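Reopening this ticket.

The earlier resolution said the output was attached, but the attachment link was broken on my side. Pasting everything inline this time so it's all in one place.
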Amino acid sequence: MSNRRSFRFLVADDHPLFRDALKQIVAARYPGSEIDEAGTLDQVETRLVASEDTDLVLLDLAMPGARGFSGLMFLRAQYPTVPVAVVSASEDAATIRHAIGLGASGYIPKSLATDVIDTAITAILDGAVWVPADVVLEPADDDGLMSRLVTLTPQQVRVLMMLSEGLLNKQIAHELGVSEATVKAHVSAILQKLGVESRTQAVIAASNIESGLWHAPVSGS
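Inline output:
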């Protein structure tokens, strides 16, 4: 059973008070476990580089460096063997289903009582996919967008989010420490994978991803 040994957790949230509360829940349930924390997506990556044997990341969707599902997408692409459970203020059923579809091992609304959060974490560590009882994990009707999103590499996820911020290739290259030619190659691959024809369409798709408007059109020039 999951409560018979210690684990390595990473609590990722930009609100220190909630991080502390979640750490207390985990520490009380799993004494002796190592509990690290991060307030930005870059810090999450730094922690995972140092400790890829992390047993569970408890990830807030809204934190610096992440927009919409981009943080989850990046972590699932970069660290596919590290389980990620979303802990979010959003309780929308469609958001929950999309998070699971993008590879989350569970979805824990922040409004839940401490004992329910405890139960959720235990279930996820035991290998279950946990969502609130009133959410039915029916297949998401996303017109193939989700299946295309999961094919993006970690770097392509970063480039896509930077495109959505309005950055030019030169600026993206500077931020990532790569050549403009490399960025152009990433952009071309993103367009192909998302099934769009221009940067504008890719940005619209990214905006739809962030807002959960999976069915919105991506036509543009």
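Reporter confirms the inline version is readable. Residues 180-194 form the longest helix (15 residues). The CA atoms of residues 91 and 170 lie 38 Å apart.
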